[in-house]
Amino acid sequence: MDSTKRFTPSDTVEPATKKIKTDSSTTEPTPTPTPAPTRDPQHGIAPIKAEFLVQRSATTGNPTATTSDDAAEASGTVSRVDARDSRDNNKPNKKKQKGGQNKARKFHFSQDEVKLCQSLVTVERESEFEGTVCEFAVMGAERDKEKGGRGRNEGKRGRNRRGRRGEREKEVEEESKQEDGVKQEEADVVMEDAGEGEKKAAPLRCKFEHGLRKYLEHKKEDILGVCPIWAERGVCANGWRCRWLSSHTKEENGELFLVKDEAKAQAYTEKRDRELVEKLANYKGTLGNKREEQPWEKDVLVGGFDDPYGEVVNNVPMALKIQVRKISRTEPQHNDEFPLKKTWVFQEWSNRVAADDRDDNRAAYVEPPPRPEEKRKLYFSKETPVLAPLTTTGNLPFRRLCISLGAKVTYSEMAMSTSLLQGHKPEWALLRAHTSELPTFAAQICSNKLDPAMKITEVLTSLFPSSAAGRHGLSFIDLNCGCPIDLVYQNGGGSALLDQQNKLARILKGMNYVSGETPITCKIRMGTKDNAPTAKKLVERVIRSGDVQAITLHGRSRQQRYTKAADWSYIAETSALVKSLKEQMDAETDTAAEKEGRERNPLFFLGNGDCYSHIDYYNAVDNAKVDTVMLARGALIKPWLFEEIEKGQYLDKTATERLDLMREYCRYGLECWGSDELGVATTRRFLMEWLSFTHRYVPIGILERLPAKIQDRPPAWKGRNEMETLLGSSDYRDWIKISEMFLGKAPDDFFFTPKHKSNAYDAGDMEAEG
């Protein structure tokens, strides 16, 4: 087949309701009955042209690895044993270790042998190093003074003694004011007797290097080429620690200087601001009324470690996370630092009112629940393809890449409500977003109880009240009711809520009550068991409660995981039910709304599952009648799927074009995690996480027929050139080679544990989790 042929939605098969019936008046002879068609022997195998197939001998190793897709949303234990895992073969008595969220995985992270003080990273010239005050040593001195001269390990009763719990928490709070991510420890300040009972501070000492030449002597050799960040922006916020340092430094009269291209930096900033203004102006939803700067935003430094370029939003300071941590230890109404008044009101109402009367007992609220017109309005349509929340791979750099390719709505990685309430830094980092994602960035949370779900919802909507304003942006909050992972399911969260519909309805109602003007949505599956779908019943109940503005249905059960194709016929039936309910409720509202002057927010229904081309996308929208489609694995395997949807045709990306996308991803990663030694290692790790999915892409130019199916697994194949073959390799060692094209040579001791054990080629050298 000619790969240059354009395919449009008109190529799709019409639904059964549009097929023309056979004219009974015709006199054509009755055809001889034919036997039922047998299953295609090539079912589930990608149809690759013969000239691109590779013949493997019987002694050849494992063919193209078949990847488990449970890791697309998260990873956990799988009940069945994979016979391909040679490490367990012929060992029937070996006890299987209990898995869970990839805890057995190992990664290589390297840091500088001698670390440069964070205060000096962006000092522009060598001569200014001596006059620069180390802010971290000063911070240590101030904290030491506040403790009355006691060192950091001394309690109220003397050195290394524990005081009361409240005093210990205060010390932890003071010590936590310095971010862990700054890679800077608190300076040791020694207080000495100065006579007559007075104390004076000894010279401030910082544990990190303050001499530029000494730091550069121990710094690893620079990566060849130009710094990707500096080449795009004209400035690199990692300064002297950048692994491409030689590309933006110069030496004059024996003195070293950092080079900054002011014109390029200003042009980049103006372009970024202009694009954001255009996005906000063209947004068809509502941005909200609370678009002023929040008090906590004043404490976030522009140009700091967590936001070096002033483009990261929802970057909450550590002091505020400590306040949130105290919420779980006290009753909401007694928490003076972070009161959750709405949560307390709803809890009181929920305990007081009988379960049968809750839905209609509006007057029982101390404060009436929000009316529909008080909520911001969301907008989903055929023109707004959605990127699904994806654990590990759906990080900020990948979301930026998808936004640049045409994604219109993005979600954070799934965050656990209890971890957020405990002030867990890695969990809060999941909520950070780039300004390019505004105003359609959503946070997805997972909770198994009403109390933590309400508390974290009120916290988030208090901190991020608008979809785009100042240093924050949150369009809506999504409750995950479909995660199939054992660790989540067994604790009563994720898809476990599908079997507890009363509990789920109460959680959504509580979240909607405390969220202010921020809308609430939910993502569900068909049910927990294959032959017992419950989504229709749940959808009807959720819609009638009026607590959500959008529902996303994944066309699989929890038991099914990814072993079978998504059931779009069930999604279509549910979509018809949603349409019928909306019409019925609109008719009921018309008679009552004339008296109360109320309006009902639009309700959107999204489909999810196996969308791998624009053909799949438009089939879902036109035939299943969903408002739009959420893309998950399809976007991981080929992020330009959003481009195909926008243009309505297949795009046969060359190996060079695909490498360009990887180069962009690496630049986004270096901007997010840093271009120093640790940042390069982190970017390399997450690039390889993405490669574990995108290597499964089979170029459409080597396929015998279209459309390609996401469930098809290819036999061994070779590309149209060596680079295309390399990009299709399932060997993680080839992924390391690809990473070296953008991030320099990997350390000799570098290792990476793939998420899928089927990718572990050298079982003796590494351990991979299934």
UniProtKB/TrEMBL annotation:
Stretches assigned to the DUS-like FMN-binding domain:
387-651
Which region ranges are annotated with the description Disordered?
A: 1-111, 143-185
- What keyword terms does UniProt attach to this protein? Coiled coil, Cytoplasm, Flavoprotein, FMN, Metal-binding, mRNA processing, NAD, NADP, Nucleus, Oxidoreductase, Repeat, tRNA processing, Zinc, Zinc-finger
SUPFAM superfamilies in the cross-refs: FMN-linked oxidoreductases
The record ties this protein, via Pfam families, to: Dus, zf-CCCH_DUS3L
Known CDD domains for this protein?
A: DUS_like_FMN
* Segments forming a coiled coil: 571-598
Q: Provide the catalytic activity annotation.
A: a 5,6-dihydrouridine in mRNA + NADP(+) = a uridine in mRNA + NADPH + H(+); 5,6-dihydrouridine(47) in tRNA + NAD(+) = uridine(47) in tRNA + NADH + H(+); a 5,6-dihydrouridine in mRNA + NAD(+) = a uridine in mRNA + NADH + H(+); 5,6-dihydrouridine(47) in tRNA + NADP(+) = uridine(47) in tRNA + NADPH + H(+)
Q: Where does this protein have compositionally biased stretches of type Low complexity?
A: 64-77
Q: Which PANTHER family match?
A: TRNA-DIHYDROURIDINE(47) SYNTHASE [NAD(P)(+)]-LIKE (PTHR45846)
Describe the function of this protein: Catalyzes the synthesis of dihydrouridine, a modified base found in the D-loop of most tRNAs. Specifically modifies U47 in cytoplasmic tRNAs. Catalyzes the synthesis of dihydrouridine in some mRNAs, thereby affecting their translation.
**Protein name, per record:** tRNA-dihydrouridine(47) synthase [NAD(P)(+)]
